[in-house]
Design brief:
Radius of gyration: 21 Å
Number of helices: 10
Order of helices and strands: EHEHEEHEHEHEHEHHEHEEHE
CATH class of the largest domain: Alpha Beta
Helix content: 25-40%
Strand order of the largest sheet: 10-9-11-1-12
Distance between the termini: 61 Å
Largest sheet: 5 strands, parallel
Number of strands: 12
Strand content: 15-25%
CATH architecture of the largest domain: 3-Layer(aba) Sandwich
CATH topology of the largest domain: Cobalt-precorrin-4 Transmethylase, domain 1
Shape: flat
CATH superfamily of the largest domain: 4-hydroxy-3-methylbut-2-enyl diphosphate reductase, catalytic domain
Mean pLDDT: 95
Low-confidence stretches: none
Number of domains: 3
């Protein structure tokens, strides 16, 4: 007879890979098939160590700057987070074969920002300083054409000349609730400010946060699988905390389970950021099954069927 304590695990759904992440990873793997190793990737293709290490073993070389790429015929892939316009320009200047794996939903934000500028508006970007997506979006426009807004305090401190036409766009991986507050503050201060026709925060970010909101009040602890530099994963941990979960931790994989924080739990919530593969969820469930008599239940708040085709250069019908 099994004498282990019982543990109920609630799996959040949706969780894990989104369409943009699948497209980016597939782009690297397809490029390796077509061109062979090495394939250079500027910045982590997605923010997950397991994924990056797996692609390294297959022949991908990750760099932070094009200066690290030798003169080569090998392709250079731009990560899902997007890059400033100066990066593909520099690649063309060196005759490098570049392939853009920017998530189409990030590209949408880039286009919005450019349209606002063409219409004479100063663009306010809601996002986190230094995040690759923010760097890429700000780099779509000339210096000074975008102002970064990180929090409510920044809204109050904005120095905008009277009569300036304004618009806002947002990083795609933010907390839905926090962003809503910042947008409301901008609209109170600048009633004429223009916004996106459709929400910039991506469907996957929103869906994963909604699933966590549903599960968090029902569990004693929540584990979010994701890397520390993954914005959407960090936001899931924060959402779990603000939604009433007493213990919320971000972990890379089963080896990082904080057993000491989970000694007295009877229910556990489990989710994964948009760049974390399902194999890590399976690994964590197996680790708990070795210690507890586990009952697993999935809590689904949305169905996802979004698909993004590969970059043109990597499609089956491409002349490349």
């Amino acid at each position: 007879m099994d004498q282990r304590r019982k543990l109920r695990i609630l799996l959040c759904a949706p969780r894990g890979f989104c369409a943009g992440v699948v497209r980016a990873i597939d782009a690297v793997e397809r490029a390796l098939q077509i061109y062979g190793a090495p394939v250079y990737v500027r910045h982590e293709i997605v923010h997950n160590k397991y994924v990056v290490d797996s692609l390294k073993r297959k022949g991908a070389i990750f760099v932070e700057d094009l200066d690290e790429v030798p003169d080569t015929q090998a392709p250079v892939i731009f990560s899902a987070h997007g890059v400033p316009k100066s990066v593909p320009e520099a690649a063309r200047g060196r005759n490098l074969l570049s392939i853009d794996a920017t998530c189409p939903l990030v590209t949408k934000v880039h286009r919005e920002a450019e349209i606002h500028r063409k219409r004479g508006r100063l663009v306010l970007l809601i996002g986190h300083a230094g995040h690759p997506e923010v760097v890429g979006t700000m780099g779509q426009l000339p210096e000074g054409a975008v102002k970064l807004v990180q929090n409510l305090e920044d809204v109050g401190g904005l120095d905008v000349p009277t009569g300036t036409a304004l618009a806002f766009v947002t990083q795609t991986t933010l907390s839905v609730d926090d962003t809503r507050e910042i947008v409301a503050a901008l609209q109170r201060r600048f009633p004429e400010i223009a916004g996106p026709h459709k929400e910039d925060i991506c469907y996957a970010t929103t869906n994963r946060q909604e699933a966590v909101k549903r599960v968090a009040p029902q569990v004693d602890a929540m584990l979010v699988v994701g890397s520390p530099n993954s914005s959407n994963s960090q936001r899931l941990r924060e959402v779990a905390e603000t939604s009433g979960c007493p213990v919320a931790r971000l972990i890379l994989r089963a080896d990082d389970i904080p057993w000491g924080d989970l000694e007295d739990i009877a229910t556990l919530g489990l989710t994964a950021g948009a760049s974390a593969p399902e194999v890590l969820i399976d690994e964590i469930v197996a680790a708990f099954s070795a210690r507890y008599e586990v009952e697993v239940e999935t809590v689904t708040t949305a169905d996802e069927s979004v698909f993004f085709p590969l970059p043109r250069e990597l499609r089956e019908d491409s002349p490349a």
